[in-house]
Amino acid sequence: MKKLSHYLFLFFLSANAYADTKLSPAWSSSAEFKNPESVIYDPVTKHLFVSNVNGEPLAADGNGFISQMSPEGVMAKSKWLVGLDAPKGLALKGNLLYVSDIDQLVVIDIEQERIIKRYAAENAKFLNDVAVDHQGNVYVSDMLTNRIYRLANDELTVWVDDDMLNSPNGLLVEHGKLVVASWGKMTDGFATDVPGHLLAIDLVTKQLQDLGDGKPVGNLDGIEADGLGNYLVTDWYNGRLLQITAEGKSTTLVEFNQGSADHTVMPEKNLVIVPLMLDNTVVAFRISH
After folding, report:
1. pLDDT digits (tens, 9 = 90+) for 264-273
2. Most buried by CB count within 10 Å: which residue of 44, 51, 98, 127?
């Protein structure tokens, strides 16, 4: 574990002067991950889980794995669980860890440290983030098909299929809605001619609408609430952590190298923790309001 660099700290002092949420450096892990894509905190084990793609994001090569680390940034088990292809989004439901893995939703029993089920997502191409609602339904986005799947009653089916999703990536359940961070309208590869923004889907009616004015923001990845009615959102392609208001206005809080991925927020420790996919590290910042 190491402290963040001095130039980043100076950036925060100036960049956060105009933001409601202020950040200061907490810690940075050593570069011992392999393309870390998502991080989540488990209050039972009191550890963070980190998904490692370990190669190409669409390669069904069997070398993806999950790491376990402390909330202070110290590695506990580098390969806590193996046998995945290119794991990305993570979500918790009780003692179960749900992981998206290209075209499958994988269920891991945390106590037993083993995979107990795999759900195939029909016609899925690039499953990404995962979220769980208060009824225990599990949602997973597919960036390449403009779909969101839902696991309900032990069956994984297409829940929403709409081009308005604009390559859905990050997911957050909040106030009866599924808030979606979109990547944008893709052209060649993962490049976009129109960057993404935030959208919201009513969990009952499935009504889909832009959050705010729908103005393009960036190639969005992870999304979490900031505790003030706004959202902390990563921009993977441009390497940023943003604060986005409910009206869609965005402010850059931190700048990284390209690859800032699916982060988590720990309110009990006032931390936001961000995996840097291309730097093979995970970094944390202290939150103050």
Report:
1. 999 999 999 9
2. 51
Structurally, the chain folds into a number of domains equal to 1
Answer yes or no: is 1 within a domain. no
Question: Of residues 21 and 247, which shows the higher confidence score?
Answer: 247
What is the C-alpha to C-alpha distance for residues 92 and 140, in angstroms, rounded to an integer? 13
Residue-by-residue DSSP string for 243-260: EE-TTS-EEEEEE-SS-B
Q: Are 128 and 140 in contact (CB under 8 A)?
A: yes
% of the chain exceeding 90 in pLDDT: 88
- Please give the residue range of the domain that contains residue 269: 6-288
Residue 116 is part of a domain; what is its CATH number? 2.120.10.30
Element (H, E) at 7: helix 6-15
CA distances from 248 to 162, 232, 233, 244 (A): 21, 12, 11, 6
SS3 13: helix
Kindly report whether the global pTM for this prediction surpasses the value 0.85: yes
One-letter identity of residue 105: L
pLDDT of 67: 99
> Where are the strands (E) in 18-146, listed by range?
22-28, 36-42, 47-52, 64-69, 75-84, 90-93, 96-101, 104-109, 114-120, 127-132, 138-142
C-alpha dist (Å) from residue 273 to 210, 218, 232: 27, 20, 11
Residue 54 corresponds to which tokens in the numbers above?
A: 């370990």
